[in-house]
Structure formats: structure tokens, C-alpha cells
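Order emerges. For instance:

***
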Amino acid sequence: MAQTEVDWDHHIPLPKLAPVKAKITLALVALLCFINSYDGDFVFDDSEAIVNNQDLNPATPLNNIWGNDFWGSNLSSNNSHKSYRPLTVLTFRFNYLMAGGLHPVGFHILNIGLHSLISALMFDMFSILLGGLTYVNRKRLNHVPKASLLAGILFAAHPIHTESVAGIVGRADLLCALFFQLSFLTYCKAFRGGGFCEQLRFCLNVLLLCSAAMLCKEQGITVLVSELVRTGLLTRLALLSLSGASLLYTRWKIMGTGPPAFTEVDNPASFAENVFLRVINYNYYYSLNAWLLLCPWWLCFDWSMGCVPLIKSAFDWRMPWLLLLWSFLIGLINQAICSQDSQRRRTLTLGLVLLVVPFLPACNIFFRVGFVVAERVLYLSSAGYCMLLAYALGCCCCRWSKHKIFTCVMGLLLIDNIQGQKSKFHQWRSEQSLFTSALSVCPLNAKVHYNVGKNLADRGNTSAAIKYYREAVRLHPTYVHAMNNLGNILKERNELVEAEDLLAKAVHIQPDFAAAWMNLGIVQNSLRKFEEAEQSYWNAIRFRKKYPDCYYNLGRLYVDLNRHLDALNAWRNATMLKPDHSLAWNNMVILLDNTGNLAQAEVIGREALKLLPKDHTIMFSLANVLGKLQKYEESEGFFLHALRINPNSASCHGNLAVLYHRWGKLELAKKHYELSLKLDPEALGTRDNYDMLQRKLDQLYRTTAP
């Protein structure tokens, strides 16, 4: 090895650690930086990928994971994002099984552990990429232990990893990076010598690990490109190339031989009709990604929906950023090709490969992606950035070895990264803090305002939620989900006319929006526009065949129209589609009771309780029916059971009192009338019945008095 290479590494102001100690140090740095995320909630994409994903439930057949996408949708569905990551979903299922349910702590701890392991393994990767691959007696030498440690520390502490570690869905990026590393390190072992069989074994292990990386996240296939950059036997290179092509073809077939369908709001630049503008905006997206690696101070959970306005003119003030990015890249490429220093050529080439190649699937060149900027996709690319930065700092230390300024710079850089993590993890601790933190980064992002509004509405603050929903619609006038949610809140506030206008506009913009059609039907029903409401309900069912809630609301409409048989049929459809639809079961019992079909009401009530044995509302309705059928003991049993589940139900106490009143158990009737009135003093019917009972008891006392 050249003397200059040794000098370059020796001047870095870090201790020279043995490999094991260096890896432990990097793991501890990663743990120190990211440990604060262990007690966060499920946030943002975690809801769809984990909380609402039935593939995590142990009761779901394991085979479903291999036929569904990352979000639990069937890959053949038009709504599927085609993100096929079964190994990642398997780890989610493992967390679910070990914790006995959806407890986020276990999910977060595994993410932190994976990042610590990856950071430790980065020491080996950087030592190969920075110092070269040299074996003596089949043992690999590390010529740059300090530079490898420096690059590893920069990687372990980089704030761009916040989303990948603190957001549980970032598990896909972590696992992909882990198998990427293992595949690369296994490939490098093939260079230490050995016979053909041993070389072939290493290559097969490389392909197996590459396949695992791709089954964790799509960009895992890029490890083969990184390995092909290194020289090797023709047979080995041919095998890797052929296998890579086979993996790509298999992945394409899994996607259904077509890319997923995204909308303009997901990635507006990809829908620009002018090719020049499309290319310009893509390059601006690249510059944004580069800026986030360089200065990760303005991180945001979502960069779509107007967060990054399109560049529509060559005179846009953002154009210099594109020129700066490409000037810098061209300068690096020039040095990588033309430098007189062979070590510099190799280091810059491999650093650029590690920076650029993992980012290729997200660059919009090969296919349209569903985002503008996604911090998670920079997890692997950041390793290339950290490698280049460590090399640059090492060269500066070598050139100005007498100046301690670079020691201070590296120390401040690390401290700044660790301090930056604290605020970032606080943001990812809950959806409320995550969404509100994005308002200062992307104030023009309609989805940010939508998510803030949704979070406020879920917490019961509908007045504040309205403000953010209105702003989301103002920023993006065709944002149908914001219109739907705003219409729902206005419906609950009895502002029906505006709610109808919003929902009608939503279904006009997106005619297959089934939920908006159903909500429009509810509003029209409240406005007594019965014909329009019925048509809206049927439109919802036409676009979503299995829609039990819509059948339930359709049944309520038919009751208002005195079409009792149609109402019963609608509710029966709801319970067939969703057997635990409590409201539909209960309404059937009540309607049959009110129309005098007591025997049928009893049958339906008992059928419902077989499916929902702890539903106190159905017990209450069935108890009323049994009381009218003079089955007093059974009726009493259901009332008492319902009160054990919900002891503060005034109506249940009141109706049990009526039962005792009919049954002749007047003291018990008095007791439960009084309990009911204590819980609800304004119940006039109960007050009248109580007064009637009191008069009867007074009369009995007078007649029995001596």
C-alpha cells in the first residue's frame, strides 16, 4: 500500500480501535442517538401497514403474506401499491406474536436494534470501500481503521435516518440495508481465494441474500449493481448479471407486469406534459434529497400535495440549485475518472456508486414513484454520503494536520446530529406532534393540514379540525378526502346544506368515492331528500360491493319511508357482510318489536347474541321483547346481564323497573325506577311510571293498614 494512504488515515483525530471494539462503538453511538424513539406510538403509515393490516394477525393464514402487498392488499387489486415486502411483514407478525398484540414498544425496539447492527456492519463495508480489499493468509486487512470508524459514526448518527428508525414502516429500509450489507460482504469474501466450488458457493449465498434484500424492499436488487462495479472472474460476473435479470423479471411478474397507479398529487412532476419541465423538476427533487443529506434540519413526514411547487420556468429562483448539484457531481465524477491518485479514483467511484445506485429505484427514471421526496429511501444512500464526507475530512486532516479546527468540526458535527435527533424523535412520538411539526416545513402541503385536522377530529376537537380541513381544500381544491371528512363534521354539527355541497362536489370529482356517496346519502336523508339519498346509497354500493355500513344506513332510510321489509333486508345484508354489525342486529330486533313481530324479534335477538354474546344493547332489546312475551324470568336475566356490563344505563334500569311492575314485584320496580331517575332525572316516561307505581303502593299500604 502507498505511504500516502497510511498518512491519510493516521491524521484523522480518532483512536485506532480493534474491529470488534469499533463495531461495538458504532452500535452504541446508534443506540445513543435513537434510543429515545422506543416509546413512540404507531404513527402515519404505521396505521395502514401495521394497525389495519390483517396479515399481522396470527389468525390470518401465513400464505396470505406471499400474495399481498406491504399494506395488506392483494397484489392483483387495482388499489395495490405493488410494494412486495413479505419478509418485512413477517417481522411485523413476529412482533405481534411476541407481544400478544399491537404494542408499539416491541416494534420500536427491534427497529433500534436493527439500526445498531447495521451501523456496526458499516465498519466492515467502509473499510473495504475506503481502504481496498486485501487478504493476507485469507484474512482481510483494514488499511483505514480511523476513516472507517469516522464514516460509521457519521452514518450511525445521521438525522436522515429518523423516519426509518422511529417510523415502524421504516423496518423495510432497515432490513433491506442489512441484507444489502451481508450480500456485499459475502461477495467480498470470494476474493480471498479458493477453488471454483467455494467461489460458486459464495456467489449463491450472495444471490440468496440479495433476494432477501429485495423481499424486504425493492431497492435491495441494487446490491448486485454495486457488486458488479468490482472486478472479478468472468463466470462470477456473468452469474450475478443473469441472476439479477431473473430477479427483476420475477419482481415484474409479481407486480402484474405493470407499475402501480399513482395520482398527480403523489408525484406532480411525473404528470407534467412537457418533457423538459419533467426533467427539470426531477432534477430539483434530486437536489432536495442532496440537501437533506447535507443539512437534515427540515425533515417532514410527507412532501407531496404542493409542498414542493413545480418549476414551470427556466427563470425560477430554484434553478441555481440544480446547477450547483450537477456542478458538484460532475466535479466528483471528474476526480473519480481523471485523478492521478489511484486510491482517490477508487474511493470516489465506490462512494458515488453507494450514493447513487440505491437511490435509482426512487429517481423516476425507470418508472413513476408515488412520492416527491421520501427520507426513508435515503437510508442506504446516506452511507455513500458518509463515506465521501469521511474521505473529504480525512484528506483535510492530512493536509492541515497542525490545525485542530477539523477536530472541532467533526466533534460539532457529531454533537449537532445527536442534538438534532432529540427534536426529531419528539416529533415522531405521536401523530399530533408529527403532523403539527410538518406545518412549519411544508405549509403549502394540503396533506399535512388534512392530517392535522384528522388527528384533531379523532381527539374530539372538531372546531379546530374544521379550520385545517378548510385550509387543505383551499390549498388543493380537488382534495376529495378532506371534503369528505369536513362534510362529516358539518353533518354532525347539523350544518347540512354546506355538508351536502361538499360531499356532492367530492363525488363529482371522484365518482367512484364510495364513502363520500354514503355520507352524501346520510345528509340527504337528514334533509328529507329521500329519493336522492336512496340513489346515493346505491351508488356507494355499486362502487364498493361489500359495504355493510352503507346497507345499515340504507335500512334506516327505508324505516323513514315505512318500507319495513326493505329495511330488514338491508340490515340482513349488513350482517351477512359483517356478522358483528351490532347496530344492524339491534335495529332488526327493535323494528320487529315495534311492528308487533315479537316471535321473529326473539329469534333474531338470540341469533345476534350467539355472535355478540357481550353486546348489552342487543341484550336490552331482546329483554324488552321477552318481557312483552311474558317470559319474565328470561327477560330479567338479560336485563341484569346488560346492567352488569353497563351499570349506568338509565334506560336499562327504567325498562327493568317496567318489567318488575308488570310482574308484580313492586319493591324491585321502585328500586330500579329510582336508580333510573338518579341517572337521568329528565326521563319523563320513567317519572310518570314511577308516580303511577308510587300511587299504587300508597293504595296498597292504605288497604292493608289496620
